[in-house]
Amino acid sequence: MSETTASRPAPRGMAMLRRIDPAVAASFGCILLLLLVGSLYSRSFLSPDYLLQQLKVASFLGVIATGMMLVILLGQIDLSVPWVVTTGAMMACAAAAHGTTGAVVAIPFGILCGAAIGLLNGIGVAYLRIPSMIITLATNAVAQGLMVAYTGGFSPQDSASKAMRYLATGNAVPGLPNAVLVWAIIGAVAVWLLSRTTFGRAIYAIGNRERAAYLSGIDTRRVTMLAFALSGALSAFGGVLLAGYASKAAQSMGDAYLLPSIAAVVLGGTHILGGRGSYLGTIAGVILITLLQSILSVMQISEAGRQLIYGAVIILMLLIYGRQKA
Amino acid sequence: MTEWRYWLAEQRGTLLAIGIFVAMFLIYATNHPAGFSANMVQTASNKATLLAFVAMAQAIVVITAGIDLSVGMILTLTNCLASWIVVGTATETALGVLGVLGTGLVCGMINGAIVIFGRLQPIVTTIATGAMYYGIALMLRPNPGGSVNETLADALTGRLFGVLPTSLVALAAAALLIWVPYSRSVIGRAAFATGSSEVAAYMSGAPIRAAKFAAYTLAGLLSAVGGLFLTFFSYTGEAAYASGNAYTLFSIAAVVLGGVSLMGGRGSAIGAIFGALAFRTIGDLLFVFDFDPLWQPLFQGLVLMLAVSIGAFGLLRVRNRLEWFG
Question: pTM here?
Answer without folding.
Answer: 0.86
